[in-house]
Amino acid sequence: MKQKNEKNYYEFLEITPAAGLEEIEAAYRSAKAVYGDDSVAVYSLYTAEERQEMLTRLGDMHATLTDPVKRKGYDEYLRSTGIARRHDWDVHSVHSGKDIFEEYTEVGAFKDKLSLRQPLTVMDGQDPMVVERYRILYMKLEQAALKNSYKTFAITSSVKGEGKTMTALNLSYVMATEFKKKVLLVESDLRNPTISTSWLDMGRLHGLVDVLKGDSDLRNSINRLEDTNLYFLPARCSVKNSSVLLDSPNMRTVLNKAKEDFDYVIVDSPPILPLADISILSKAVDGLLLVVRAGVTPKDIVAKAVNSLPKQNIIGIVLNGADDAHMKKYYY
User: Phi and psi (nearest 5°) for 247?
Assistant: First the structure.
């Protein structure tokens, strides 16, 4: 049976324990397609043996959940070991399949859906290799997520100007549009909120700063990018006391709630040096992704930044701005 730190069958297939056979079959086919021989980007991440192992595991899941007797036994096992999250088994809390923001759409609250002021690199179709690199980056994150049940990832850099925000934006967009994940991009660089100032139309008037101060609730501060599964929780304004706000109980509540409502939460974070903000955030997220600009950031600065963070939280490094020769060894 699965270990407690791994996803159970329902979580892996992204269905609820109340799912019917039709939903289970659809989820199984979707998951199986990811590890097939012709799947996008997987060829560069898994050996044939690893793909076959995952397909065998998926087959076991399918056989268990489609057999009433086996499924009943599996459900009892989850309950008895505490692997199942309690709310998954509360009949009043089981997700109905309805979008968590659909109620707001119905009353017109999303008439101010966001659009971007300019296209992202992965949107223009001019450089397929760039899109492919973000696909691979997502698949690497997916590996960490499946292995450790991770959902929240902070993207940071040693110093400003290394491309962390662009990485967060492009990665989130690919996750939401190509891999159909419901993604929330949180702008936590409260002293320099470039997503709010340079990328997003106005949308909702409130943002993360208002939520952390207690002046707005979370759902009334989240924006949805038009016709996608990508949601934004922008800062909306800059503040000087960023460390105080990020270290508040409200910030932990925001991330915990977001983990319940979204498949993944990407946190565009402040640079590591010289602020204390990322040290605070590193304790609240599942993993950290460090962006390093190739040929620009001195090695000693990168080393100092890495040494200032908990080693177990750093799940990878992205080499940004490298030429094609370097990108053949895409760092992660």
Answer: -95, 10
